[in-house]
Design goal:
Helix content of chain C: 25-40%
Strand order of the largest sheet of chain C: 3-7-1-14-11-12-13
Radius of gyration of chain C: 28 Å
Chains: A alpha+beta, B alpha+beta, C alpha+beta
Shape of chain C: globular
CATH topology of the largest domain in chain A: Ubiquitin-like (UB roll)
Largest interface: A-C, 62 and 60 residues
Largest sheet of chain A: 5 strands, mixed
Oligomer: heterotrimer
Number of domains of chain C: 3
Radius of gyration of chain A: 15 Å
Number of helices of chain A: 5
Helix content of chain A: 25-40%
Number of strands of chain A: 5
Strand order of the largest sheet of chain A: 2-1-5-3-4
Shape of chain A: globular
CATH topology of the largest domain in chain C: Aldehyde Oxidoreductase, domain 4
CATH architecture of the largest domain in chain A: Roll
Largest sheet of chain C: 7 strands, mixed
Strand content of chain A: 5-15%
Distance between the termini of chain C: 58 Å
CATH superfamily of the largest domain in chain A: Beta-grasp domain
CATH architecture of the largest domain in chain C: 2-Layer Sandwich
CATH class of the largest domain in chain A: Alpha Beta
Structural class of chain A: alpha+beta
Number of helices of chain C: 18
Number of strands of chain C: 33
Strand content of chain C: 15-25%
CATH superfamily of the largest domain in chain C: Aldehyde oxidase/xanthine dehydrogenase, molybdopterin binding domain
Order of helices and strands of chain A: EEHEEEHHHH
CATH class of the largest domain in chain C: Alpha Beta
Structural class of chain C: alpha+beta
């Protein structure tokens, strides 16, 4: 079946099998391997992407369901102006270790901040409760999202030079 | 990772088209909305539909509105929509309380009211909520619409009255006054299915007696997700501690939970008693205008 | 090698990029790629012509294989090959050695011995086709009775699982003892109080977010095998492949790219890895195999599964006299534990813990059951998690019987600072510690006395008539742990005969930039940052000028990998020593350049200068260029500025800590909520405090997970009841409190920079604190974790359930 999906602002189109999962379409067909997968049962959230701005678990969405819609992956978070405040926050607050849950976690955070620019800790914890992390104990992820809330886009001039 | 077996795929943009597509693909066709129950089953190859009819395009079924003396909820309303609904928050706190503990926020962005009810998982929270509220389901087919009481909607675990070529389009709940409602769930962890859950609404009359009451039970093998005997026992009586205890005990006695890794039978029965009691107490408090 | 350089001054010095020149908080170098989705994990590897493999697994826990028919699968469009146990027998590869002297099946030939065991491997054009074809492989099984309950594994009528081994008539693997049984007996005989308790540390799983997998390519022209694989120990894997498959080791390249968490899950060699290699040999194409989550949970290294009977002896005023324990260890169907050869029960015999008493003894009996193999994983520090759980539970059981505050009892028995180095009753030499200070600090942060007061008030309120029956029960739990990490001294420790020393190479380029090559492999611990800081700390060049290379056996020196919290204690020492050697060589170069003697030179923050003339100086960058230049060097001194080191640790390091957990339990539902968690860790000087705290945070979440929800149980047929993330529950952000951390700093006297390793401390120390808190809330002496609402409620009813069996 022929589909056309706007991925990170660019139009992608091609033929796919109806059963192709969105996560595989992104990773294998488009080569956007920043989206990971960690389970098969939509429990872990490693595969979270934004579908029309809303976080979804792309292991449980068919690629054909994204036809005609817009998908944002981690590769689409940064702009030419620099990192998204969420990305910067994850770095500043050590919100990632192995990096595997990070793309999904950051996209969930982005959607939260778009909806609620100044969430408190409890709101953040609830928002990320569908994204499992095995490294951080969530503490620094919460801090990272708070950091991003305190540093709206314009203030993020550049990433730390490393 | 696990992947589904091949299937044919068709997309519907209207209810009529969905019904037509179901007819065309026959008995092996399944509707898919959020897909968060169906797709994992298909990945495990426990479900093998020949064809999926995608109804995510039926955005005209995504609504929550007051319609006369009822609230109408479109079948394609996502869980997140139920959770955030001002209309439901005004009338029935039970919805937000249940939705907040259904799966996780991301799954709730995708899963739908219709999909949850039609999946008919015995532990499904919304089934218990609608059973408690004595809602009705509107089911459409090529030959027209029919209305089914939610308490008659499920015919067994993973089975409903929705037949071949039919589609659940709407759920309706009566608007009640002098009312409080609440949902109580115990789970092993955030996002897990309920070990046991109980929902209730209570309508009090001016004397403080129960004018009407509804109970919903999930995950404990309650017939039709409820316990009508307990409701009958409460109606017309003041909602005393004794009455609540009797009703809770009756619910615990009548349900038929099964042991699994969430808990043994005795514990689940015990939980039913505790949670029915808590749901009734908080519902009554809210009916009296207390902040509970 | 035994100098202790304190990092005190390096925090204040900053590189041009603003990073500390040495120790201190520094943002991670590796984040730049992860934040953009540019990490490269094994499943991101795509090679031209790559095929995909999928494994058919046994639905039975124990069954004889009568036949395997691959005809239909072979004929399926897109299928390139189907490999069975028979195929492998022909290649003499059906069995492979485990890391514990046993053998395990790559693909089952005679019987399947656990649910999820590998039976056939399908290779196809793509993953979807491979998985479709799995359904077409027709296997005929004859189900056999399964050994599920370890306590019945040695029954005379128990089915013999390992009839593949010659002369096997039972399911016994080994008995192993440590300590002095007679001294223990004597101590128990004179004790006022003896408390005995049975406890299960149930089977759990490391469950990293990334599952295991590999991409193998055998280039038949060059004879070179390249394997991109999820391994914490790339060099050990290379050697094992050479030994197992008879492949020449110099033609094997193992690449461990970015790893999505390991926690011990990625130490062992799994059949899937071998099958991807065999698949590439058979098809001539690269073959990728990635397990799904169920495969990960059901077939790869589990952790724990210790059934323990502990006995503690004490005087009536609470002085501990002795501790002894009998362990029944469930090793699954094959003994595939990854641990130093001499220690079949890992480092469990460090179970005497953090206390001062003279007598201890343990006996461990290991058995086969019809479950997956493994046993050392999940940040357990070679079974120290089990050991700490045992002793910290037994100490609480003693406090319960003595009606003594558990903090007071611990304080009374903790080793005192002047006792270090301390030789434990089971032979460990603890390097350094100030235990009372750490416990006092944890109690200070927690406000321990106020917490106990609040608890007393709540209990009094609950006892009053008309009290709210749903008012939460408050519990306070402590644990104090001593870890033994950094395995280990070569003369004592090896895995499969490979000594546990680590190589390291430091190379300064002419412009003063450096590359550091490590044998260990990060799985998220931040080695690219921390190791650069170690080198920076010693030679003063900015950490951003030091590139850390690891995870590729063609480009790094040999070493045994990252597990058991050994990277910083062993490879970190190697890096520090390499840097020290470079620094000393730079001194010779500086003397030549400054035309003075080396004795006249003094070191200060990245430069050698002439004593009394600080302006006559050469920075490391200048010396790097000079070392590569035409500058004449003394006789016998070669040019360049490199060092290659193999570090053989003289001893383990012994990090320690004091943890306090506060919980609220719903008395009617049994639901447990962790209200607070206070963790004071002492891992010596902290190279990067931000990273250390992150390591602790993760381990504390593990403790909450194991104490409250994580468990793999089996039903009576041997069906795995924890085979997906719907059933094997990992803690979410909702169950974890905001962690409250503290620290003390006690350097290791034998480590070149005094550091001790921290990767597993919190996982080791935290479960007991949570469990002790729950039991304190319930007023019970003991019940087994995980404290799911059902387990908790049944314990409250006095009818506890076995966590390792199906709930009925």
């Amino acid at each position: 079946m022929r589909i056309s999906v706007r991925v990170n602002g660019d139009e992608a189109s091609g033929d796919v099998e109806p059963r192709l999962l969105l996560v595989h379409y992104l990773r294998q067909t488009l080569g956007l391997t920043g989206t990971h997968w960690g389970c098969d049962t939509s429990n872990c959230g490693a595969c979270t992407v934004l579908l029309d701005g809303v976080p979804v678990k792309s292991c449980t969405v068919l690629a054909v369901m994204a036809d005609g819609h817009a998908v944002t992956t981690v590769e689409g978070l940064a702009t030419s102006d620099g990192l998204d405040p969420v990305q910067e926050g994850f770095m500043q607050e050590h919100g990632l270790q192995c990096g595997f849950c990070t793309p999904g976690m950051m996209l969930t955070a982005r959607a939260l901040l778009d909806r609620d620019p100044d969430p408190d800790e409890a709101t953040i914890r609830e928002a990320i409760s569908g994204n499992l992390c095995r490294c951080t104990g969530y503490e620094n992820i919460v801090r990272a999202i708070r950091w991003a809330a305190g540093h709206p886009a314009a203030e993020v001039a550049k990433e730390a030079s490393l | 990772m696990q992947v589904p077996a091949p299937f044919e795929y068709a997309r519907a943009s209207t209810v009529d088209e969905a019904i037509e597509l179901l007819g065309r693909h026959g008995a092996g066709a399944r509707l898919v909305a959020g897909g968060h129950s169906l797709l994992p089953m298909m990945k495990l190859r426990l479900a093998r539909p020949d064809a999926l009819v995608d109804i995510n395009g039926l955005s005209d079924l995504d609504y929550i509105r007051v319609d006369g003396d009822e609230i109408a909820i479109g079948a394609m309303t996502r869980h997140a929509g139920v959770l955030g609904s001002a209309v439901l928050a005004e009338h029935y706190r039970i919805f937000a309380e249940a939705e907040r503990v259904i799966a996780d926020p991301i799954v709730r962005n995708r899963g739908t009211v219709g999909g949850s009810l039609c999946q008919a998982d015995p532990a499904e929270d919304l089934s218990a909520v609608f059973a408690a509220l004595r809602g009705t389901a509107v089911v459409r087919s090529a030959s027209g619409s029919r209305t089914v009481a939610l308490r008659e909607f499920h015919t067994g675990p993973y089975e409903t009255v929705v037949g071949e070529g039919e589609i659940l389009v709407e759920v309706r709940v009566p608007i009640r006054t002098h009312l409080g409602s609440a949902y109580e769930k115990v789970e092993r962890r955030a996002g897990d299915w309920a070990i046991a859950a109980a929902g209730a609404f209570v309508q009090l009359d001016d004397a403080g007696a129960v004018r009407d009451v509804g109970l919903g039970l999930a995950a404990v093998g309650a017939e039709h997700y409820t316990c009508e005997e307990a409701e009958d026992l409460l109606r017309g009586r003041p909602l005393s501690d004794e009455a609540i205890a009797e009703a809770a005990a009756l619910c615990a006695q009548r349900c038929q939970p099964q042991a699994d890794q969430r808990g043994p039978v005795d514990y689940k029965r015990h939980l039913v008693g505790v949670l029915v009691g808590r749901a009734l107490r908080r519902s009554a408090g809210r009916a009296r205008g207390e902040e509970v | 090698m035994t100098t202790t350089e304190r990092p005190a001054d390096s925090d204040d010095l900053r590189s041009p990029a603003g990073n500390p020149l040495g120790f201190g908080r520094m943002l991670r170098k590796e984040d730049a790629r992860f934040l953009r989705g540019h990490g490269r994990y094994v499943d991101d590897v795509v090679l031209p012509g790559m095929l995909h493999g999928a494994i058919l697994r046994s639905p039975y826990a124990h069954a004889r294989i009568l036949s395997v028919d691959t005809t239909a699968a072979d004929a399926h469009p897109g299928v390139k090959a189907v490999i069975t146990g028979k195929t492998l027998e022909g290649l003499n590869l059906a069995w492979m050695p485990t890391l514990s002297g046993d053998v395990t099946a790559v693909l089952a030939t005679d019987k399947v011995r656990f649910q999820g065991q590998e039976v056939a491997f399908v290779i196809a054009d793509d993953e979807y086709t491979a998985r479709d074809a799995l359904e077409l492989v027709d296997v005929e099984y004859e189900p056999l009775p399964a050994v599920v309950d370890a306590r019945h594994a040695l029954d005379p009528d128990a089915p013999v699982i390992r009839d593949d081994l010659d002369g096997r008539t039972d399911n016994h693997i080994y008995d192993w003892e440590a300590g002095d049984a007679e001294a223990c007996e004597a101590a128990f005989a004179r004790a006022d109080v003896v408390v005995a308790e049975d406890m299960i540390y149930p089977r759990v799983h490391p469950a990293p977010m990334e599952t295991c997998g590999s991409v193998a390519y055998m280039d038949k022209v060059t004879g070179k095998l390249t394997v991109w694989t999820t391994t914490q120990a790339p060099h050990a894997h290379r050697t094992v492949y050479a030994l197992v498959a008879g492949l020449p080791e110099h033609k094997i390249q193992i690449i461990s790219p970015d790893i999505g968490g390991g926690f011990g899950n990625k130490v062992g060699i799994y059949p899937g890895y071998v099958l991807s290699i065999v698949g590439s040999i058979v098809t001539g194409a690269p073959v990728k195999w990635m397990e799904d989550r169920s495969e990960n949970l059901m077939s790869t290294s589990f952790a724990r599964d210790y059934h323990m009977h502990g006995e503690i002896a004490a005087t009536k005023d609470g002085k501990i006299l002795a501790l002894r324990v009998n362990v029944l260890a469930d090793h699954g169907a094959f003994n595939g534990v990854a641990q130093p050869t001499k220690f079949p029960a890992g480092f469990f015999h460090v179970f005497t813990g953090s206390y001062d008493y003279p007598a201890a003894h343990c006996k461990v009996t290991a058995v086969y059951t019809n479950k997956a193999l493994g046993g050392v994983a999940y940040a357990c520090s070679f079974r120290i998690t089990e050991a700490v759980y045992l002793v910290e539970r037994m100490v609480d059981c003693l406090a319960f019987e003595l009606k003594m505050d558990p903090a007071e009892l611990r304080m009374k028995n903790l080793l005192r600072p002047e006792q270090f180095p301390y030789t434990s009753p089971t032979g460990w030499v603890y390097d350094s510690g100030d235990y009372p200070r750490a416990l006092a600090e944890a109690m200070r942060i927690a406000g321990y006395d106020e917490l106990r007061k609040e608890q007393a008030e709540r209990r009094a309120a609950a006892a009053r008539p008309g009290a709210d029956p749903s008012a939460p029960l408050m519990g306070i739990g402590l644990s104090f742990f001593t870890e033994a990490v950094g395995a280990g001294p070569r003369k004592h420790m090896d895995i499969l005969g490979l000594g546990m020393a680590d190589g390291c190479e430091l190379r300064l380029h002419p412009t003063g930039k450096a590359q550091l090559r490590l044998s260990v492999q990060t799985q998220g611990q931040g080695h690219e940052t921390t190791f650069a800081q170690i080198v920076s700390h010693v030679i003063g060049i900015p950490p951003e000028d030091i590139e850390v290379l690891h995870g590729d056996t063609d480009n790094t020196p040999f070493g045994l990998g990252t597990y058991g919290s050994r990277s910083t204690p062993v490879s970190g020492a190697a890096a520090a020593v390499a840097a020290q050697r470079v620094k000393e060589k730079a001194r010779i170069v500086a003397a030549a350049a400054l035309e003075c003697s080396v004795e006249d030179l003094e070191w200060e923050h990245g430069r050698w200068y002439v004593r009394g003339d600080p302006e006559s100086a050469k920075t490391m960058a200048e010396l790097a260029m000079a070392a590569h230049s035409a500058l004449e060097l003394p006789e016998g001194v070669e040019g360049h500025l490199d060092a290659s080191v193999v570090y053989d640790p003289p001893n383990l390091t012994y990090p320690f800590g004091a943890y306090i957990c506060v919980v609220d339990v719903d008395p009617q539902t049994g639901a447990v909520k962790v209200r607070r968690f206070i963790a004071v860790d002492d891992c010596g000087p902290r190279i990067n405090p931000m990273i250390v705290e992150g390591q602790v945070h993760g381990g504390l979440a593990d403790g909450v997970g194991m104490a409250l929800m994580e468990v793999i149980a089996f039903d009576s047929d041997g069906n795995n009841l924890g085979g997906s993330f719907m059933d094997y529950l990992l803690p979410t952000s909702m169950e974890c409190p905001s962690w409250e951390l503290g620290m003390t700093v006690t350097p290791s006297p034998h480590h070149p920079i005094g550091v001790k390793g921290v990767g597993e401390s919190a996982t080791v120390g935290s479960p007991a604190a949570v469990v002790n808190a729950v039991l304190d809330a319930l007023g019970l002496r003991h019940a087994d974790m995980p404290f799911t609402p059902a387990m908790t409620w049944r314990a409250m009813q006095g009818r506890p359930m076995r966590p390792d069996l199906a709930i009925e």
